[in-house]
Design a protein that fits this description.
It is built from four helices and no strands.
Length: about 70
Amino acid sequence: IVCVCRNVSDRRIRSSLLDGAQNVRDLRAELGVTGCCGKCGPRVRELVAEHGAARTAVQALTAECACAAAV
């Protein structure tokens, strides 16, 4: 559990990021994280950053792949 105030797991946060949440503000609006005591803020920001880095890596690999360009 990342956010004990709202009972939100890292799995739920990752799922929201995959579903289109882009930042902490989006996650706060959707899940309520970082809206109470704020102790989950550092971990939520870390998960957002990890997701952004993974998305960037996938985009870079896709751009280099000739089969992706052919689609």
